[in-house]
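Supplementary Methods, section 5.1.

A reviewer requested that the exact input to the structure prediction be made available. We therefore reproduce it here, unchanged from the version used in the analyses.
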Amino acid sequence: MMEERMERLSITGGTSTPTVEFDPITGVLEIGGESYPENSYEFYSPLITWLEHFLKRTKVEILFSVTLSYLNTSSTKYMIDILDRFEAAHLGGRSVKVEWYYDADNERAKDTIEEFKEDFSMPFAVKARGGER
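The structure derived from this sequence is encoded token-by-token as follows.
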């Protein structure tokens, strides 16, 4: 059975929405910026639909790279939904890695991400970036 060709998902970030680059060929799925859209369902629904399609129709290794500097409560719910789908793929034998970057000067962000990490068995790296030197 030949794998179906999927289109890349690219969303340019705005003031309250993150930038999204999901590449089905490389398996690198990136999301970054700030996430506090007025309607989180409207923003995240197409990402989740694309992701479900991707997980069903491809077998490539996945690297989920997150550089979100801010998430509101409703965005957090959707990020957990996305991570849950990756966890299911991981438990099903697929290679999935999460790399979540936080501002080195923001210990609270690090603690929040570490809490996310505790709920998953897939490889999940919490990495500092930037900060004062």
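The domain at 17-128 is CATH 3.30.750 (Transcription Regulator spoIIAA). These observations are discussed further in the main text.
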